[in-house]
Amino acid sequence: MTAAALETALAGEHAAIFAYGVIGARLDQARTGDARAAEAAHRSRRDALLLRLTAIGATPPPAQPAYALPFPVTNQPSALRLAVQVEERTAAVWRAALRETTGADRRLALDALTDCAVRATRWRRAAGIKPPIVAFPGAPA
Amino acid sequence: MRTTVEDQRDAPTRRAVLRAAAGAGAVSLIGYALSGCGLFGDRTDPPPAPDPLLPLLAEARELLGRYDAAMAANPDLAARLSPVREAHLAHATALARLIGAPEPSATASATTEPSTEPSAPADETQTLAALRTAEQAAVRRAAQACLSAPAARAALLGSIAAGRATHVEVLR
Fold first, then answer.
1. How far apart are CA A41 and CA A62, in angstroms?
2. Which domains are delineated in chain A?
3. pLDDT tens digits for A79-105?
4. Does A134 contact B84 at a Cβ distance shorter than 8 Å?
5. What is the ipTM of this complex?
6. B39 band by pLDDT with thresholds 50, 70 and 90
7. Searching chain B, which residue's CA lies closest to the CA of residue A1?
């Protein structure tokens, strides 16, 4: 149960890392630092998941060479919208992992959910989306 | 045979209904007599332990009141703070439903407003700093509740902890 939830989270992190490559290329200089920091955070969660899944004897799913984007990313506004969506989707997979985990694994999931929610809020503010928060991050709308 | 078994199974319920109608004294006697079969065990058992999420519910309501007071003292902050206030109301409502406690109404915090309003700092920077401190502590308590909760409650509590962390962001 834990392994399946963490594998789903890993698949989400792979997709997020891919998306930030696209996002970073479309942001102006003032925002690229935030995108790079977000990507680094997702890479570090991915690495934590790889270690954990290997430790419990699961086979971590590999990253796909490319992922379909939900809409074309052609400029800064669409890049910011994608960044919001990436964080919301990653938050959702980590939230789902909470009920399948206990102890250190749940701590990992909660920290990840929280970080995704905070980044989603930052990107919403950058995109001028109001309100910049949701009541229950990661919950189905 | 079949009829007899059903009669036996039905018997305590019918008797209970009849005697319950006879008065409270009769009800407690029945409760004692039937506690062995678990039907009326709740009448004689000690009251259940308070739900471990009650402090979190109280905190959500307390935060709600803080935002009401802050917006009353600094109307200019209303646009920024009211979504956070709504989030705390949503948290309180969800927690009350989960626990089975009475749900707050949208105006429930109005009763606490007079006591908190005078102490709310009118200075915007101080107001935001005070709310930030309160939210940071609230994040830690929700996170702790999430980590020690049974599986069925973990997702909601995780969302509340993460949501509170985003409030800190809005207050920067």
1. 18
2. 2-127 (1.20.1260.10)
3. 999 999 999 999 999 999 999 999 999
4. no
5. 0.97
6. low
7. B151
